[in-house]
Amino acid sequence: MTDKTSPILHQVKAKFADILKREQLSDTKVTVRVIPLTPEEAIGNPERRDFPIIIGKERVIEATLLGTRGQAYTDSPEEYSGTLSEIVDLDLSVNQQRAVFIAALNATLGHLGLVGATVHCKDEDPERCAVEIADTVSERFGDVAVGLIGLNPAIAERLVDKFGANQVRITDLSQDNIGERKFGVEVWDGSERTGDLVAASDVVVLTGTTMVNASFDGIWRHIKSHGKHYLIYGITAAGVCHLLGMDRICPCGTSG
What we know:
The chain is of the alpha/beta class. It has 2 domains: 7-111, no CATH class; 125-249, Rossmann fold (3-Layer(aba) Sandwich). It contains 9 helices and 11 strands. The protein has helices spanning 7-22, 39-43, 84-88, 95-111, 125-141, 153-163, 190-200, 216-226, 238-244, and strands at 32-37, 59-65, 68-74, 80-82, 146-149, 168-172, 181-182, 185-189, 203-207, 229-233, 248-249. A hairpin with a 2-residue loop joins strand 7 (181-182) and strand 8 (185-189). Helix 5 runs parallel beside helix 6 (153-163) and helix 7 (190-200) runs parallel beside helix 8 (216-226). The chain is globular, with a radius of gyration of 17 Å. The two termini are 33 Å apart.
């Protein structure tokens, strides 16, 4: 569905390199460590247990730069240590290196005070986040058809509560979810039906994880070609959305 080299992330890489040069961080011996977090470390112990990170489908990795943390979701976590100049030179066609790059980007821009909400909310805040996202869509766009890209069960449930199952469409890439009905909505295959979802929706709500799993560029082309409204949610998208001026929502994330 997408070009794994991600032209969008290459734009981000160039902007990131300019920031490091301007802030005189490129040649500084700064170590960025990225470690996979356990579900409890990343999201605490929420009452509902169907979040992808809890059931083992995804992990959160965390980069720490000069005491500031930045996180990113990935299904291919790995540990990494290196300088910011090395981070900028990572091969963004590789899943694990995209995750490292984005987590480090989030930590760096957080350290510079350019972005907030780079660390995942915990315990019952993910439920509150879902309510606020559904409310925001309603307040900004009215009674609309909503497409959710990436099955976040809390967000899906609150969107259905707010707009009705007949007004919500969902795509996901997990074979465990595709074809299943969630809150009265059939989950479509994101590798085949993203275009259908975007075309049928007034507003597209998509996870920032798409920036790591190489699906974002294709989704973005559909959104722009159809002229749809959108909101990108979550911690992963913090740095990319800031650098490219994209609309992001992360009501309960915290600063690193």
